[in-house]
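During the second year of the project, the team shifted from modelling isolated chains to modelling whole assemblies. The rationale, set out in the original proposal, was that interfaces cannot be judged from single-chain predictions alone. As a representative example for this report, we include one of the complexes processed in the last quarter. Its constituent sequences, exactly as entered into the pipeline, are reproduced here:
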Amino acid sequence: MSLDPQRTVAELKELRELTGDENGAQRVAWTDTWLKAREWFQSKIKELPVQHHYDAAGNSWTTLAGASEKTLIIGGHLDSVPNGGWLDGSLGVTAGLEVLRRFAEEFGGRPPVTVRLVDWADEEGARFGRSLLGSSAFAGTSSIEADRGRTDKDGIRLEHAVKRCGFPIERFPDATSEKKNAAAYLELHIEQGPVLESMDLPLGVVLGTKGVERHAITFLGQEAHSGSTPMHARRDALAAAAKLALEIRTIAGKHKDAVCTIGSVKTFPGIVTAVVGRCEATLDQRDLDARILAGMYRDAQEASQRFAREEKCTVEWSRIWSIQPIAFHPALLGFCEEAVREVAGVAHRLPSGPLHDAAEVARSGIPSVMMFVQSLRGISHNKIEDTKEEHLEMSVKALDRLATKAARWILDSAA
Ligand SMILES: [Zn+2]
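Output from the structure prediction step:
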């Protein structure tokens, strides 16, 4: 039997049954339910001519050894957010498994190149607030000292949670040894946004992951009595922040795929009878182009200073976090486009707003690409996350074609 995309859909449902409840998927990394999902995966590879091991950071590797040591890696993640969807991450693993089966069968257990399937540990960072934990250890960009003391909502430390699963955090850096012979990385994921659905397209070619500038912005004015302070005499910190919240639409609107979000605003003293003396806001800016991202950051800073002046306030900025944009590999983008066109007729290219493990793999220097399949209503990280079954099946077919093209490319470049 060759590639069977219906089996992928059936297995996704099986996994949902086993690890979800009425509120959605509960495969939060380092929990018993997550371990159960990984056990389920083990049961699926028993009959295959593969080797399996966990690396030092808890990433799960299934290897189909080929005639060449040069390796094609296909990835995904079985972990979910609490009350998550049934497809986020798990589609990449189950579709990758189907492609692995097809390679094993077509080549009698020994394909021309080595093919490996990786289930990354803790992509979501849902419990400790540290996303891409396993893939950053693989890439060599992990930050053990900053991460070990992170705690979950019950006060359990990250270093204890990972140790309980058999992976002491001190050993995480050893996961970089898995990079040996890696020649290409492919990841299929649901879009988690509304773009493909709005264009009525089942599949998309992902150009890269957007860079992120994330900042805390504090406007400082003067707390004052709401009854006795005339309007012209106020130094209202919220007024300045509110102007900025509207201005970021204009700042982002100058660029095609850019986004800016003020996701949190806190006012102090925060009572009904006082003018706001201090306002703390957060700003998240994203774009695929580093120059555009830097320009938007500058624009927002200038605007905040202008609005602070207008409202007789001052403003302070501090960076919470940032990451540069990651562009995927041109040759693999070309193969991805061919594969999507062969299966869906049209190939649209789009950037990814969310970060993915593929960004860590790409920045470690391994040629990488991602493929998106349409998300219904653009919703994810929620139990109503869904994709049409016919689209899921198309995505498995397209990933398989992409894998064949990438494997051929690996062999040609080695020759
Ligand atoms: Zn995901």
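The domain at 5-209+325-414 is CATH 3.40.630.10 (Aminopeptidase). Residues 209 and 352 are 5 Å apart (CA to CA).
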